[in-house]
Each structure stands twice: as structure tokens, then as C-alpha cells.
Design goal:
- It is a single chain.
- This protein has twelve helices and six strands.
- It is of the alpha+beta class.
- The chain has three domains: 3-55; 64-138, 2-Layer Sandwich (GMP Synthetase, Chain A, domain 3), CATH 3.30.300; 140-237, Beta-Lactamase.
- A three-stranded mixed sheet has the order 1-2-3. The protein has a three-stranded antiparallel sheet with strand order 4-5-6.
- β5 (205-212) and β6 (215-223) form a beta hairpin.
- The longest helix has 20 residues, at 140-159.
- GO terms for molecular function: ATP binding; ATP hydrolysis activity.
- Residues 173-255 form the Bacterial type II secretion system protein E domain.
Length: 256
């Protein structure tokens, strides 16, 4: 039974209004929940308690501040946004996952894949869009960490000329701001179970993308001018030649 039909059955809306709402859902391609909340037909909490009853999935109320960043980082931000699902807690290899649309088959498949890759079991809870959006704000902490590193780097670049030689890039790659930036990138990729990291220079920005479930997701955008230093840092970690740019090189490193 749809949420609109549930509201009709409970006498909260009339038949004519239900028909009108169902038509609007089809025309606008909006989800029932989105439309009902937007039109203020019922309160969000009440609507999602009905949905919980309908799906037989428990509704969970969570304070965003109670969920540590290391838990949120178990699923990359882009995946969280796309499927509107977010990790809430972890006990050993058992995760609690909050989902706004647990009935979404694609989200279910993505979660199963993550569970296989991460070798964890999970229980799904229903959460409201408000709870989800508050949790999503917590991911900004990760970006703030990158922001602080970039500010440190800007100060250093103001104090001296932009590096041009291999030796200068090597020195810059070993300094704190660049090492922090690369460390944050690696941590987000590992915690999110990404299979690949793509560091791509664009016309104005350097884009960092993570491959998850076979698809590339843009996650971080950084100033283009630091691209050589970031690449130099990765080469240093991998014991590769910094000045070799004509042919591919193969290297590896481990991190804790």
C-alpha cells in the first residue's frame, strides 16, 4: 500500500486529494514522501512512522553529533548522497545503516556489494530526510581538514616562489600540507572501500575520483597548482622516479 493510500485509509486526506496527489507523483516523477512533505500534508515524523509500519523496518532517530566521523567514512560521501544511506554505528563487523529509501532496489544492491567487500553484516533502519541531511553535514568535517591543509599550503606558497624544479617539488611533497592532503585522500578511499583513485588535472581544478561499484564518483576538487606536488608525494611513497613523466611506472606502498 502506498503512503497516499495509507493516508486515505486513515481518513487524513480525501479521495479527490489522493487522486490529485497520485497524478502529481506520476507527472513530476517525485517520490511520495518528497511531495507529501513539500505540500505539508502531514508532518515528516508522522509520515515516516507510517512508512516504517508499511515496510516493517524500524524508524531510528539519531543525533548527528552522536555518529563519529570514522563511522561515516565507512561509506564515501558520493555514495551516501546518491543512495541516501548512511552508516550509523559499528560493533565489530556489524553495521547499522540508516536509509531514507530502503525499498530502493539499487540502494539494496549497492549495500549488499559494500557488505561483501567490507565483510560486514548489517541491519537497515529507516531515517527521515531531516536526519539524513544532518548526518550529511558531518562529512564536511573531512573537507574542513582538507581546507586547513590547503590554507597552510597557500601561506607557504605566498612566502616563496612557486616550485618549478624536481628538487623543489620533492621538497614540497614532503611538507605537512601535501602529506595531509594525500593522507586524507587515501583514508577516504580505504574507508569507502574504493578500488581505484583517479587524480585528474582539469583546466582550472584537480579532480579526485574514487571507483566504487564499478563507477567513478567525484569526491574532492583541489587547486590545479598543487597537482604536481600531489603526484610527487604519491611517487615518493611508491618509490618511483619523480622526474619520469614519459613512460608509465609501477610501484606500491602500504599504509596504516
Amino acid at each position: 500500500m502506498t503512503l497516499i493510500q495509507q493516508l486515505l485509509k486513515k481518513g487524513i486526506i480525501g479521495k479527490e486529494q489522493a487522486t490529485s496527489l497520485e497524478f502529481e507523483v506520476k507527472e513530476t516523477k517525485k517520490k511520495e514522501e518528497e511531495l507529501l512533505i513539500e505540500k505539508k500534508i502531514v508532518a515528516e515524523d508522522f509520515l515516516f512512522s507510517l512508512k516504517s509500519e508499511n515496510l516493517k523496518i524500524p524508524l531510528k532517530t539519531v543525533e548527528a553529533e552522536e555518529v563519529p566521523l570514522e563511522i561515516l567514512e565507512l561509506i564515501p560521501e558520493e555514495t551516501v548522497k546518491y543512495y541516501q544511506m548512511v552508516p550509523l554505528s559499528k560493533t565489530r563487523n556489524f553495521l547499522e545503516i540508516g536509509m531514507v529509501y530502503p525499498e530502493d532496489l539499487k540502494a539494496q544492491e549497492a549495500l549488499k556489494f559494500l557488505a561483501r567487500q567490507g565483510k560486514f553484516n548489517y541491519q537497515v533502519f529507516l531515517i527521515t530526510p531531516t536526519t539524513f541531511n544532518e548526518l550529511l553535514k558531518q562529512y564536511r568535517t573531512l573537507k574542513m581538514e582538507l581546507g586547513r591543509a590547503l590554507e597552510e599550503l597557500k601561506v607557504e606558497l605566498r612566502e616563496e616562489r612557486v616550485p618549478r624544479t624536481v628538487a623543489e617539488f620533492e621538497r614540497l611533497a614532503e611538507e605537512a600540507p601535501i602529506t595531509k592532503i594525500v593522507a586524507v585522500m587515501l583514508r577516504q578511499a580505504v574507508d569507502g572501500r574504493a578500488s581505484d583513485i583517479h587524480i585528474e588535472p582539469g583546466r582550472e581544478k584537480m579532480r579526485v575520483r574514487f571507483r566504487l561499484l564499478g563507477q567513478l564518483h567525484s569526491s574532492i576538487f583541489l587547486p590545479l597548482r598543487i597537482h604536481p606536488a600531489v603526484i610527487a608525494r604519491v611517487k615518493i611513497l611508491s618509490n618511483l622516479k619523480i622526474d619520469e613523466t614519459r613512460i608509465p611506472q609501477d610501484g606500491r606502498f602500504s599504509a596504516k
